[in-house]
Amino acid sequence: MDMDKTPKERIVFDEGVYYGGEGSEISIEDITSREGITVEEVLDSYTEEELFENAMNMMDIDRSEELAGLKAFLDGSDNPLSSYDNPLGGNRIIAQGSIGRWDGTSHGMTVYRDFDDMMSGPDSVFKDCEIGKVWDKNGSLFIHGYHHDGGVDVEVRQLTDAGEDALDVIEDAWYGEPFTVNDKEYDGSWKSMDAAMRDLWENPDLCPAPRYMELAFGCPAEEYEAPVIDPLLETAEFTSSAIMSAEVAPGAASATVHDVAGVPYEVPADVLNGLKGAVRISDRAATTTLFTSLTIAEWTQKGDESAKTSPVSLKAAAKEARESSAALAAHGASTIDLEHEADNAQKASETLFDADGDR
């Protein structure tokens, strides 16, 4: 089971959200906002067809606005969606990806003068396409388009000033004559020209990812999807020694923990931290042994129960137990409600202390 971190898709535009139930919700929300009426009034006044038509109108408007914002970012013009002034704006852009048609899929790379040239110029990869989705993954920019015959998927990057100079050298090179780009010599063959373009694409000093969502809208430089917890993990039993000996490697999102039967499970880092907290609490309270084996939810409950027998450590216990429960909930696992138990533990502790904090 692969628990490596998956970059989060930061959506710029996605026409898929305007269809189905989600599209209906978006349409209803739009009408209630514009007309100042309730959801019930919208449902009484609009047919399903009218709600769908409104969703389609919203989709077309949003697509136009988002593409206009992206164009402004890459062209270096006034951006209706962001105040960020792109220092690379106006430099050429390169699209690399695939084009699918009835006779197969082709792969390649094309240089464009600007955004309009890429979207509708004579060599446009998106000719006759509708743009279905635009998204950012940790700075890398992707665009999906489709037409009656297939689809287009490309990654888009923009040249730096040094990249512009490097591309000029490649384009001005004569066939069969050696040329040098970024201190690397190429022999002038068609193969070497292709290699030079690939090297240009792979060099972040010459052809970096645009970092659109980060620079234009202030998103984090990197974001990752929360690991999805294995349903079988909820029923697996772990000993305290297995939990405490597990370590999350640097940069990893999970750690391997073996259950009592020796089966390895990938446990998300935040869930493991919560489990270790529960084990520590239980150990301090002497409510478990080295060989106690419990499920994740049971360890969480055991940590909360143990906190009530160790009032000196109540605050830390309650915090650790709640963190464990929250971590489970964040990963979609069923949990035991600790709120009531923590409140009871607080009251129990208060009876053991006087106003000066002396027992």
Written description of the protein model:
29% of the residues are buried. The protein starts with 9 loop residues before the first strand and ends in a 9-residue tail after the last helix. The chain has helices at 20-35, 39-45, 48-75, 115-120, 161-172, 190-202, 212-217, 240-245, 269-285, 296-309, 314-330, 339-350; strands at residues 10-14, 93-101, 104-112, 130-137, 140-147, 150-158, 179-181, 184-186, 238-239, 254-258, 264-268, 293-294. Residues 334-342 and 344-359 have low confidence and may be disordered. The strands form 4 sheets. A 6-stranded antiparallel beta sheet has the order 1-4-5-6-2-3. A two-stranded antiparallel ribbon has the order 7-8. Strands 9-12 form a two-stranded antiparallel sheet. A hairpin with a 2-residue loop joins strand 7 (179-181) and strand 8 (184-186). The protein has 12 helices and 12 strands. Helix content is 43%, strand content 19%. Helix 5 (161-172) runs antiparallel to helix 6 (190-202). It is extended. It is of the alpha+beta class.
Could you give a short description of this structure?
The chain has 359 residues and is α+β, with helices and mostly antiparallel strands. The protein contains twelve helices and twelve strands.
